[in-house]
Amino acid sequence: MKWQAQKVERQASIKVSDDLSKSGLNAMISLVFGMYNGVDVLRSTLNTQNFTSVLFARIMNSFQFRRISTLLDSAKKAPNSSQSKSIRRNWDPIPLPQRTLAEPRGQDLDYVNVAHSHLVHSDWTKLDKLVVGLTAFRVKHILLKVQKDYVISYEFFKWVQLKNPSSLTLETHSIIAHVLTKNHKFKSTESILRKILEPGSIDLPLKLFDAVLHSYRMCESSPRVFDALFKTYAHMKKFRNAMDTFYWMKDYGFLPTVESCNAYMRVLIDSNRADIALAFYKEIRSSRILLNVYTLNMAVHAHCKLGKVEKAVEEMQKNGIEADILTYNALILGLCKEGKTKKAAYLVKELDRKNLVPNSSTFSALISGQCVRRNPDRAFQLYKSMIRSGCRPNEPTLKMLLSTFCENGDYDGAVQVLREMLERSITPDSAIFSELCNGLHQYGKDEMVLKLSKEVDAKHVMPEGSGKAKSLNS
Fold first, then answer.
1. What is the reported pTM?
2. CA 320, 324, 325, 327 torsion: positive or negative?
3. From residue 95, how far is each of 66, 181, 250, 446, 453 by CA, in Å?
4. What digits encode the pLDDT tens for the residues 92-136?
């Protein structure tokens, strides 16, 4: 009877243990995936097996194991102490997986050896006879066999692409990407990646990353391969894929270069997604990526684009990166767009203290500020200072000046700006040109109207609608 009681007690203990394990696992799942951005997308795009493997990897990542870190050179420089503590606490990379490729045997081995011989001797005529026997397995082994010569590797890949594209897979694309990025052939890498990503399915980015990751050790690759993948998504304006790749890279201890981060921020800002650019800026600041002045310029530009000029000034002052003329130009333009010309003038004085020389963009921003305040006289003074400094105004600045003079009835100033535009073969807007001619006509300067019309016609930049202005003299 005693042993039966012990048995019942043991079974009860096992049941309680199982219940605790299940509840603990559920809690762990919630914890791990609660911290993961885009989990809903992950669940919907992964099959059961892949989802389970990613889940296991993330659960293992929550424990403190010894990790292998293979960070980019730009990320190896020590961050400040507060950043360092945060990184050590929150970032523990997952160990890199290693996938082995079965060795070729029999006919496969013969084929690989013969094809390799023809390839190193550049005997493409004999290679053409082997097209029928191409398989993904054989292509992979040939690429691995010649990977130390990126020229031959790339030529062979393009040959397969042309002759038998069905034998190319994500794995073969990954291998050639490793080969090219190791040799700093990033444009060629991006060209290859674009071809498979443009028509890709929703789960392709994860599959491609997985293929690159698992062939990394096999190809003795460089972290630049992930950087190239991230930058390709940025250039293709696939913002969600770029961010997903950024997080996946971080999971395994890789980081994009600051140049790629800057490129991504630039594309976001140009696409009117300054909000995402600033969110990404915050993300890379918390990582080990060493930022540069161009990164600061992007952040300042993004703040200004969102109308947060004061925040942009604050960002420049607290960052610790030495601002350049581009940083100041972005701030000055942001202030001038809001009509805050006094604050902009203060920044111009600061340029002198920093030994920075104003350029065309600086003057254009200041001129725009005076135009916003409807002060054409001051705008024209700045324009003259700009010319004396050896800077040349761009087309938008000249058109803005011309429009401001006409709106304020200063037609003499408008004529001077128009002639500057004609010297540079810039076509004035038809509405503004007509307004100028009508204004001159009202002041009895019909001869000036005719003269200007002839000058415009002689430069072959006559705007549409200028015929109406000419008719004033008929």
1. 0.70
2. negative
3. 9, 22, 12, 81, 73
4. 788 888 888 899 999 999 999 999 999 999 999 999 999 999 999
